[in-house]
Automatic annotation (TrEMBL):
InterPro entries cross-referenced by the UniProt entry: Glomulin/ALF4, YAP-bd/ALF4/Glomulin
Pfam families the record matches: Kinetochor_Ybp2
Organism: Camelina sativa
Top-level lineage group: Eukaryota
Record protein name field: Aberrant root formation protein 4-like isoform X2
Length: 576
């Protein structure tokens, strides 16, 4: 850039003045004069003058100056920094401070916002992109502490999107640093009480478009890394935007439709997102073993789950990428492991306290969809170890306690019906029992639970394929089923919220027909199997490890089984 400067005579005014724009003009004149004379001749050096200018602008921001005065100040700054004759040294020095301080005026009016944006853009055009990346990231961090981070960050995010495109080398390393800063700002904005979702969305998508444009210019490994970083960014902002919705989710469908093409560009699918395989691939490519960087995307699993649920909220969202939700459901119904993985991911929606209920309702419906009509014949015959998935699934299922009782019972029923693991079935039946004991259950809920208890206990104690359950292989499920049935026989629902005792006169569990069915078809055949198994193990060498383990599994089953038989016999005498 030309080394000639704007003459100091053009700017010099009396130091003492009542006009903010005049004072700013004076300070800018001092900046140019200090360069003009090499910092000598009694003039203050450039750095100290810039500090004085920043201090003055901060005072203006704190004193709630009139909008017209601020407009004049910003207009003066823009006019000076846009001059083709301004020395590059001055522009560089001003760029370190003015984007941050002028952004504080962006919330005064649309005119102020536009002027600040123009000032930031001018610095982006005139200064080194790598320097501006650091400057704008620092300014964004400062904007998070302002009273209006939404307005203050707008010109900075706009400038950052331009900087991304201007970077000439080491694109991934620099974007990797900037993206978490952007996400932090967007998340702060989403938590504002009166956040405008459309404005937030525009800022988020502007950054995504810039990252995509950078990626399209790259090749080989760096292109892959930038593309994966874009994928993580889109997934994270999906969570941020979804949480920011205060009204109806359907009203934001047009916004989410604009995000879907990014998924295609990044090679992501809704099935890959809901089973976590896509997010793991993205994170390993971008972060590697850097756990600190992984924490920069705290809502990545929530966002991945929401991207699928949005396709259920609106068919239009899925159509934006030609995604067919039905095919995903079919695959999850067929593939047991992927279904377990989906259970673990959906818990992030169910456990979120910031989302609208509509998201949770559609999540529950999706859970029912992927378990509907599934039978054991649709699953592989080979035994699959679910121990790796059990902790995640159990955490997800505990969240079901927040779901209204009717839906909760039906979700658990669907999960039990399609469980291929004895341990998992035991966990599910235990959660079902806990749900029955809830003090908030109403009469209709108790009736629903009664009917489902009969169905679920029979499913375990009298399997659909016929014959009693296999022992000791099915020990966990059998013990849980017996405990559930014993609880149902003894269950006293107590009082409801109105203080009226709930009646179990019409209880299906206690009806004569079902008591006789349980006695003859479940309990007595199981007693024979358990007795024979215990007797066979008693004949074997007492020091044999497998024999000892079998006895340990069978003893608690025998104890609860005989208690159930006693309770049924007692209940039947009341029907005589």
């Amino acid at each position: 850039m030309a080394s000639s400067t704007v003459g100091s005579s053009e700017f010099e005014e009396t130091i003492v003045t009542a006009s903010p724009s005049r004072r700013v003009r004076e300070l800018l004149a001092l900046c140019f004069s200090s360069v003009e004379v090499g910092g000598g001749g009694g003039f203050k050096d450039l750095e100290s003058v810039v500090k004085e200018l920043v201090s003055y602008l901060n005072c203006l921001a704190e004193n709630d100056e009139l909008e017209n005065d601020v407009i004049e100040v910003l207009d003066e700054i823009l006019k000076v920094v846009s001059s083709p004759q301004v020395d590059q040294e001055v522009i560089d020095e001003l760029s370190f401070q003015l984007p941050k301080v002028t952004s504080k005026f962006a919330d005064l009016s649309s005119r102020c916002l536009q002027l600040v944006e123009d000032i930031v853009d001018r610095f982006v055009e005139a200064c080194n992109p790598r320097d501006m990346l650091s400057i704008l990231c620092e300014a964004l961090d400062a904007a998070r502490c302002s009273l209006s981070p939404s307005s203050c960050s707008t010109p900075l995010l706009h400038g950052l999107s331009k900087v991304f495109i201007s970077i000439q080398r080491r694109h991934f390393e620099q974007l990797k640093v900037a993206v978490p800063v952007v996400l932090n700002v967007l998340k702060d904005i989403s938590l504002e009480k009166d956040v405008q979702v459309e404005d937030l969305f525009d800022k988020a998508v502007g950054i995504a478009i810039s990252i995509r444009d950078v990626s399209s210019k790259l090749k080989n490994e760096e292109e892959v890394k930038v593309r994966c970083l874009l994928g993580l960014y889109v997934i994270q902002i999906t969570a941020i935007l979804s949480v920011s919705i205060r009204d109806k989710a359907a009203s934001c469908v047009p916004l989410l439709m604009q995000l879907e093409p990014f998924l295609t560009y990044c090679g992501l699918t809704h099935l890959g997102l809901i089973t976590e395989s896509d997010t793991e691939k993205l994170m390993s490519t971008v972060a590697g073993d850097d756990d600190d960087y992984v924490s920069s995307f705290p809502d990545i699993k929530l966002g991945a789950s929401l991207l699928l649920i949005w396709t259920k909220i609106s068919q239009e969202v899925g159509e934006a990428t030609n995604a067919a939700l039905g095919s995903d459901v079919d695959e999850l119904q067929r593939n047991l492991v992927k279904r377990w993985q989906a259970y673990g991911m959906l818990k992030y929606i169910l456990s979120s306290g910031d989302l609208l209920w509509a998201f949770k309702r559609h999540t529950i419906e999706f859970l029912l969809d992927i378990t509907k009509g599934v039978s054991s014949s649709q699953c592989n015959d080979e035994k699959i170890d679910c121990s790796h998935y059990t902790p995640s699934i159990y955490a997800a299922l505990q969240i079901l306690s927040d779901i209204p009782a009717p839906q909760r019972f039906h979700v658990l029923r669907a999960l039990v019906t399609n469980s291929q693991s004895s341990s998992m079935t035991a966990i599910l039946l235990g959660l079902f029992k806990d749900s029955m004991s809830s003090s908030s259950l109403q009469g209709t809920d108790c009736a629903t639970a009664d009917m489902l208890v009969i169905e679920l206990v029979e499913l375990v104690l009298r399997p659909p394929k016929g014959g009693p359950p296999l022992l000791p292989d099915q020990s966990d499920a059998v013990l849980a089923a017996l405990n559930l049935y014993r609880f149902a026989l003894l269950f006293n629902p107590g009082e409801n919220e109105a203080g009226k005792e709930r009646s179990r006169v019409s209880s299906e569990v206690l009806s004569k027909k079902n008591l006789e069915k349980a006695y003859k078809e479940w309990l007595l055949p199981l007693r024979t199997v358990v007795s024979c198994s215990i007797a066979e193990n008693a004949k074997e060498d007492h020091g044999h490890e497998s024999s000892f383990d079998s006895v340990c599994l069978l003893n608690p089953i025998e104890s609860v089984l005989y208690r159930c038989i006693e309770l049924v016999e007692e209940k039947l005498t009341r029907h005589v």
